[in-house]
Amino acid sequence: MIFVFASENKGGQSLIARGIVTHAEAIPKKRGVVRQTPRVNVSIRRTTLAKLPMGRRQLKPLNDWKDGRPGTELNFKFYRQATNKIVSISDEAALFLTKCF
Q1: What residues are paired with 43 via a beta bridge?
Q2: Using CA atoms, how far apart are residues 73 and 66, in angstroms rounded to an integer?
Q3: Angle at 53 between CA 51 and CA 54, to 5 degrees
Q4: How far is 11 from 98, CA to CA, in rounded Å?
Q5: What's the rounded Cα separation, in Å, for the pair 96 and 93?
Q6: What CA–CA distances, in Å, run from 48 to 25, 31, 43, 64?
Q7: Cβ contacts of residue 1 below 8 Å, gap of 6+?
Q8: I need a labelling partner for 2 at 20 to 30 A (CA). Which of 14, 17, 62, 101 fits?
């Protein structure tokens, strides 16, 4: 299962859908570049659209990084560094996001 967020930094509305990864392929590293972030292309089959918002506005107040709450985990992983990314989340965080559908 995958949760799809449209980048708020690029005008997206944050959590938009849930789906299944149908294909994943690593993008080869560039020669001569010492430090590179691993990159991957993914294909996703959407299974449902989000009905409730879940983004920076909802997660920003959850900033006590040691409180163990699933919303805090999401805030830390998504918004601490504002870049497009693929991250793994805990089962608790996935259950937390499921409430938006």
Answers
A1: 23
A2: 9
A3: 125
A4: 23
A5: 5
A6: 24, 40, 15, 31
A7: 18, 19, 20, 94
A8: 62
The predicted structure's pLDDT at residue 42 = 95
Query: Are the C-beta atoms of 97 and 71 separated by less than 8 Å?
Result: no
- When the pLDDT of each residue in the chain is averaged and rounded to a whole number, the result is 93
- Taking phi first (over 0 means left), then psi (-120 to 50 degrees means alpha), and beta for anything else, what does residue 18 get? beta
* 57 phi/psi in degrees, rounded to 5: -60, -45
Segments making up each domain of the chain, as ranges: 2-98
Could you tell me which of 49, 54, 38 has the C-alpha nearest to residue 86?
A: 38
Hunting for tokens 């805090």 — which residue is that?
Answer: 72
Q: Give pTM, 2 decimals.
A: 0.83
Q: Print burial letters for 57-88: b (CB count within 10 Å at least 16), e (below 16).
A: ebbeebeeeeeeebbbbbbebbbeeeeeeeee
